[in-house]
Amino acid sequence: MQFYFLSVLFNLLVGISLTFSGFKVTNLFPGKEKxxxxxxxxxxxxxxxMKFIFVIQPDWVVLGDFLPAVAGIVGGVCYIIDCCSENxxxxxxxxxxxxxxxxxxxxxxKYIGIVCIAVAIVHFIFPTMRxx
Length: 132
Known about the structure:
The protein is 67% helix and 0% strand. It contains five helices and no strands. Helix 1 crosses helix 3 (62-85) and helix 1 packs antiparallel against helix 5.
């Protein structure tokens, strides 16, 4: 039950932060923006991995376990990359990655955010619904 709540919470936080550039989760902690973003991203990835390990029911549940876990992992990685790539001096911090991953995580972060929000809302409404 705890990973269900954490999955909904972190998918929603990461999704809103990636989708709406004006929304800042870090406004609650002034001066610690990068640390808070890293913690939220790492917690989203950790929760996604734990959703694979600890399932809601012994069956294979797509909306209950698989989609929220994948959304948490992908959204968390995208949020961490977004945090590490935003720097005052772009020449000092550059992240080199494959063009596919750059297109997915850097240019497509708004779409990943929308998917994370949608998965969080659907997962909240239907925690154990099966779609096979």
